[in-house]
Design a protein that fits this description.
By secondary structure, this protein is of the alpha/beta class. Helices cover about 55% and strands about 20% of the residues. It contains 9 helices and 12 strands. It has a 5-stranded parallel beta sheet, sandwiched between helices. The protein has a 5-stranded mixed beta sheet with strand order 7-9-10-12-11, covered by helices on one side. A hairpin with a 2-residue loop joins strand 9 and strand 10. The longest helix is centred in the middle third of the chain and has 83 residues. The structure holds adenosine-5'-diphosphate. Adenosine-5'-diphosphate binds next to helix 8 and helix 9.
């Protein structure tokens, strides 16, 4: 609670002042000098200071100057108590520029009390206004800070999206351009009678492989946008994981053959309730990665059923993944290889994990550089 500080070098005056103020019911603290007053003001909180002007040592004016200099007490109102001379009174009013009041000695007790009471009231009102203003300033600063953060987030999202669009269009163009050229050349040569059915068949197979890659890419892109909008809804149906694996393997046979990679499948029936198209995506992404990063070595796929869990493993003997990258490759846009050596958007494993997790399953990888990688997916049946 804040009170009144009275300062006078004459102890009798202090006692008299205290008696006059007593009926106000305020806490009154006495100080016998300017120095003592400053000490009280250091750790106490006062709503008003009554300050004798003529004191030995620090005068009332000098004391006031120090009070106003201190940040903590800058706003504490001061009432100067001056001798009766008119001159001094005018000095006081000039000095204070109307910021505070003065009382001329000898004073009338009632007038003094009334004056102090009204000064106290307005001082406290000012105080609460100041506190409110400070609170409002703080709130405004907080709001500005939040706005700044939101803007930074939005800018970041826009930057990420732009980067993503640039990579996505590049990645989509990469398989499309040779595909178009191949098909154009095939038509031309076929018209001129330069190639036979056998060549046409081989080229169409190659073209089919390219469209597979584009389809996977487009699928991943769609999934990512669905996931980021929180719209990954599953359409579960009864299906056999072994069956799905066989289908996906068959589809990748030509692509694997093309890079000299032998695919093998060891599968026992594992019937569960899953989203068939999504499980196909999981298999497709994992197998395509195994072939892509498999350095032309064999790839083994296995499906096992253990109790209430179906386990899928896709194992290659390719470039492998350094330990420190094994977690982040499941995040969006994260890659552990350079674009120059391997194309890609870093979305496949992200989509795979999101789908697996949406099914209540989990995925992990075991790998070492140059030692190949084994991805293991577990799905509750
Ligand atoms: P992308 O293949 O388009 O880069 P993915 O999300 O499918 O995107 O994979 C992320 C990264 O994980 C790849 O860039 C690669 O560094 C690493 N990776 C994924 N699968 C394998 C694998 N079978 N062998 C080695 N590295 C892999």
């Amino acid at each position: 609670m804040s009170g009144i500080l009275i300062v006078d070098d004459n102890p009798a005056n202090l006692v008299a002042l205290e008696a006059v103020l007593e009926p106000l019911g305020e806490q009154v603290v006495k100080a016998g000098s300017g120095r003592e007053a400053l000490r009280h003001l250091l750790d106490g909180h006062f709503s008003l200071v009554l300050l004798d002007v003529q004191m030995p040592g620090l005068s009332g004016f000098e004391t006031a100057a120090i009070i106003w200099q201190r940040e903590r007490t800058r706003n504490v109102p001061i009432v100067f108590v001056t001798a009766a001379e008119r001159e001094e009174a005018s000095v006081v009013s000039g000095y204070t520029q109307g910021a505070v009041d003065y009382i001329v000695k000898p004073f009338d007790a009632d007038v003094l009390r009334a004056k102090v009471a009204s000064l106290l009231a307005s001082a406290r009102q000012n105080e609460s206004l100041r506190r409110e203003a400070a609170e409002r300033t703080r709130e405004r600063d907080e709001l500005l800070e939040k706005e700044r953060e939101a803007r930074a987030d939005a800018e970041n999202a826009v930057r990420l999206r732009d980067e993503f669009l640039a990579i996505a269009s590049h990645e989509l163009r990469t398989p499309l351009t040779p595909l178009r050229l191949q098909l154009q050349a095939t038509i031309r040569q076929l018209r001129r009678g330069e190639i036979g059915m056998k060549d046409v068949e081989a080229r169409l197979e190659a073209a089919l492989r390219q469209t597979e890659r584009i389809a996977t890419l487009v699928n991943d892109l769609l999934e990512v946008s669905r996931i980021s909008m929180g719209r990954l809804t599953l359409h579960p149906e009864t299906m056999d994981l072994a069956e799905a694996a066989r289908e996906v393997l068959e589809r990748h046979e030509p692509e694997a053959r093309n890079v000299g990679c032998a695919l093998s499948l060891r599968a026992e029936s594992a019937v569960g309730t899953w989203d068939k198209l999504r499980i196909d995506e999981v298999l497709t992404n994992l197998l395509a990665n195994a072939i892509k990063y498999g350095a032309g070595q064999s790839v083994e796929v296995a499906v096992e059923r253990a109790d209430v869990t179906a386990r899928l493993t896709v194992r290659d003997h390719g470039i492998g993944i350094p330990r420190e990258d094994q977690e982040r490759i499941f995040d969006r846009f994260e890659r552990a290889v350079s674009v120059r050596s391997y194309g890609g958007m870093g979305l496949g494993l992200y989509v795979v994990r999101q789908i697996v997790v949406a099914h209540g399953g989990n995925i992990r990888v075991q790998s070492a550089p140059g030692q190949g990688s084994t991805f293991t997916v577990e799905l509750p049946i």
